[in-house]
Amino acid sequence: MQANIKDYTNTEYRNQGTLVSGIVRKKRTETFNQIKNNQVDARTILFNLDDYEHMRNARVNRFIYAHKGITKDKATVIMRKCHIASNRRLGGLGIRQKTALIEEIEKYAW
Q: How distant, in Å, are the alpha carbons of 4, 43, 75, 110 from that of 107?
């Protein structure tokens, strides 16, 4: 059992994890910028999370206020209307929550 713990605390293993998480964060930031510049829409991302694997762990409120015209306060209101918890991530949303979220984003975003 001790051998397994050493494997997971190895600095090479940790460094590799740090690199991977950095790449994922960079991809997520690029996607948020694409949303802000209207290059990709909410429907495409929410219903194609297999193609946007890096967005699965993005917080819903960050995803909402990445859209132009939606502030953090509006994002909170939208999440309440859609019955989404404040700590929820995109990968954990159900089909009804995704549909309601898209409708609300389309109302407020420009």
A: 52, 13, 12, 8
Cross-strand bridge partners of residue 84: none
3-state secondary structure of 37: coil
CB-facing half-sphere around the CA of 88: CA atoms within 13 A:
21
* Contacts within 8 Å (CB) and 24+ apart, 77-83: 78/104, 78/105, 78/108
Q: Which residues does 82 contact at the CB level (< 8 Å), separation at least 6?
A: 97, 100, 101, 104
Question: What domains does the chain contain, in order, with CATH numbers?
Answer: 2-108 (1.10.8.50)
Q: Convert the pLDDT of each residue in 29-68 to its tens digit.
A: 999 999 999 999 999 999 999 999 999 999 999 999 999 9
- pTM for this one? 0.82
**What angle, 0 to 180 degrees and rounded to 10, lies between the N-to-C axes of helices 72-81 and 95-108?**
140
Task: Please return the burial class of 41, using the count of CB atoms within 10 Å of its CB with bins 0-12, 13-18 and 19+.
Answer: middle
